Amino acid sequence: MSFTLSRKTGGLINALRPTTRLISYKGILQARYLTKTQIIKNRSHARHFATTQITGEEATYPDIAEFSFKDSISKFVSFKEYALRFTFYEKSSMRDILEAGVDHNIIPELQDYVLTEIKDIDSVRRFNIRNYPNLNKNQKKFLGKLNHLLLNENDRKNLENYVNDFVLFLCDQASLDDGVDLTMGPCALVLEINENEFEADADRKGKRGAEIVWVLCEDKFKGAIKYKNWEVHLVTCMVAAAQWNYYMLDEVYPEKIVGIRVIEDRFYFYSANIDQSYIEDLFCGRPQNDLHVHKYPKGYGFRISNANERLEVLACLSDLKSYALSLSPKLDVYEKEDLIKKI
């Protein structure tokens, strides 16, 4: 079987190799010997299939160009949340985000970063490693990276590097990538709506097996907290992650995708139950039902530079790890590698 790699071939999103953005949806279905290969032979047929499932008859597809999505979801403006029917609900606990049996206790891997002696943002800004000889190596790295982030929060040119450096360190310390059960990496997805493809790039994605469980977006300039379209950007990346899982598995699993938004030293947590009907509606151009997005906390996010709020961030990351591990992978990374080799 042969196929051509292209940004326009559409279908399987974000393949293993960094240079591979898309692989033919038709090819992946044939490679997995899915019975739906007889029904969905290409993306056009997939859209027809989705439409007839929804309406029971042939339908005309709306012109998605009227929404001016352009070629990247980072260019979405806030009204796109209405086009994609995002509805946001602020929640009062991480349990409302995961809707799962989480204990909200900080895992052992993150206990070192409670750091009760570092009480507020001024303590972090004044941090001098020589004044804390009893800290271990990772604690010093944590505070050093956070200190550099805060001292450069007004430097629009370089703040991005400091935010990314700190967040990557924190996710690694939370064991969100153990190389076996959980993996984490760059996130270059594509959101497909009707015949249109939009780059849906987040900063990180986390997987259980081959399925994407969470995505993370860093808003890397001061004042981003005021802009709603960055929130919409995160949720569209979450939808793109659900599309990836759908193409891989021929079903939406897990239905709940988690999002993390980081603005300077503030953390927000999101979730959305993205079901198959919503994904199939996108083949037609516009979803028929609202997508309910839960957000925690209410108002401004938790500042990890604040001692009390830091406890909440660490507990939320612990809950995320527990949630990811509670899922049963339907396709592990090794099966995925074999699948790619077959095509």
Task: Spell out the blueprint of helices and strands.
Layout lengths: L10 E3 L8 E3 H7 L11 H13 L24 H4 L2 E5 L3 H5 L22 H5 L11 H15 L7 H15 L8 E12 L2 E13 L2 E9 L8 H22 L6 E8 L2 E8 L2 H9 L6 E6 L5 E2 L3 H20 L6 H10 L1
Parallel strand pairs: 3-9, 6-7
Antiparallel strand pairs: 1-2, 4-5, 5-6, 7-8, 8-9, 8-10
Organism: Racocetra fulgida
Protein name: 11876_t:CDS:1
Order of helices and strands: EEHHHEHHHHEEEHEEHEEHH
Overall outline: globular
| Helix fraction by DSSP (H/I, runs of at least 4) | 25-40%
User: Could you give the count of β-strands?
Assistant: 10
What is the count of helical runs?
11
Protein name: 11876_t:CDS:1
Labels describing this entry:
two-stranded antiparallel ribbon, 343 residues, 8-stranded mixed sheet, 11 helices, globular, alpha+beta, single chain
Molecular structure report:
The protein has 343 residues and is an alpha+beta fold. It has two domains: 11-64, no CATH class; 65-114 and 175-332, no CATH class. The chain has eleven helices and ten strands. It has helices at residues 25-31, 43-55, 80-83, 94-98, 121-125, 137-151, 159-173, 228-249, 276-284, 307-326, 333-342; strands at residues 11-13, 22-24, 86-90, 182-193, 196-208, 211-219, 256-263, 266-273, 291-296, 302-303. The strands form two sheets. Strands 3, 4, 5, 6, 7, 8, 9 and 10 form an eight-stranded mixed β-sheet that branches. Strands 1-2 form a two-stranded antiparallel ribbon. Residues 1-66 have low confidence and may be disordered. It comes from Racocetra fulgida. This is 11876_t:CDS:1.
